[in-house]
Known about the structure:
With 403 residues, this protein is α+β, with helices and mostly antiparallel strands. The chain contains eleven helices and 17 strands. It has helices at residues 13-21, 28-40, 76-83, 125-142, 148-152, 160-168, 216-235, 240-255, 330-333, 347-354, 363-374; strands at 44-50, 56-59, 70-71, 87-91, 94-103, 106-115, 173-176, 179-186, 194-200, 204-212, 261-269, 274-280, 284-289, 292-295, 315-318, 324-328, 384-391. The strands form three sheets. A six-stranded antiparallel β-sheet has the order 3-2-1-6-5-4, with helices on both faces. Strand 1 and strand 2 (56-59) form a beta hairpin. Helix 6 packs parallel to helix 7 (216-235) and helix 10 (347-354) runs antiparallel to helix 11 (363-374). The longest helix has 20 residues, at 216-235. It is globular, with a radius of gyration of 22 Å. The chain starts with 12 loop residues before the first helix and ends in a 12-residue tail after the last strand. 45% of the residues are buried.
Amino acid sequence: MTRGVRGEGVGGGGNVERVLRGAAPHALFEEVRAILARDHGAAGAELLMADYASARLQPVTAQPFTADSVSAYNSAEGRAFGAQEAHVVPGEDGVTVHLPVTVRGDRLGVLSVRYPSGVPVGVHIGPLQDVADALAHEILVADRDTDFFLQARRARRLTLAAEMQWQLLPGRSCSRPEYDLGAQLEPAYAVFGDSFDWSASADHLTLTVNNGMGEGIDAALLTSLAVSALRNARRAGLDLADQAALADQALYGQYQGRLHLAMLLLRFDLETGEVEVIDAGSPRVWRLRGGSVERFELEAQLPLGMFEDTVYTSQRFRVLPGDRLFFLSDGVYDVLSPAGEPYALHALTRAVMNTRLLPPSQVPRALLEELPGYRGGVDAADDAMVVCLDWHGRPGTGAGGGR
Length: 403
């Protein structure tokens, strides 16, 4: 749906941001409700947060788990969440406008605003989206100081290992002109070893995909140490090989080779599309280009922390505008059908093609939902991770080239 003209009066985006910055973190949504009623003539409003599995939209209430959630797919709210645009739903007693609550491509939830019957809501959509955008930014800041919104994301209790893993993550999706990213972990409420991380500068995107050894707290502690070491090295300005070496030393120093971590470490040049990569273990890469799906064959090196003073070397390839990359853990590509056929043999290609029209933020969830059926209902033996990246290239550069 096309957004209306943005308001510049009392309810304008800048004024909303100023009001929300002064609100107590746990009271952000109550402040938004007051703004919507006072400045936008709304009869009521509700905020729903996407749960950790990206499957349900959970109402934000004073007491968690006291209101029913709705599907993130098969609902009016889910339509706004999936399409990332306003969705208007007329009713007998009024009209509801559902708006995505998203910041820098990270889809947090949906803001639903109710109006009495007869109100022409079209002129309100632009200003309402300003409110939703301002709320999204402030929720990210508020999460540092309150558990209010984090609790609202939970359809059930997280295991301690999953709590640790989710706190490590940068988000579940991210958008810039050069790329779109989406990622998901499963089982969302009991994940332990898989993880991902990303960070962008003016000229580069660094992406890390990790598959930690072990289960439960041991796996979560291992991954936490590895991610922290990689971030420390990256923020110190070290090159890719030295980042891997520092993390390798940190893990070996702690575990003496008893535990190790498989990793893909990539650095994308946003100007040219050239990618520097270190393949240190089991996470693997598939590429969708021009209707063809192929696995990248990279030079395999030792996992982090397996031996002392391992030397890592990087290799390079190039991505083209229109490329879609998939980064998968062995909990995805090694899943076996009842007949013993690995998921990566044929089913993965079908799934990649079937999801080619979905944005990257929705692709990981769609792929992971196929796995229980592919296993024939057998419980998963490992946690699973999917990261999907669409490469657009820097606008105006005309960057191209091949692998």
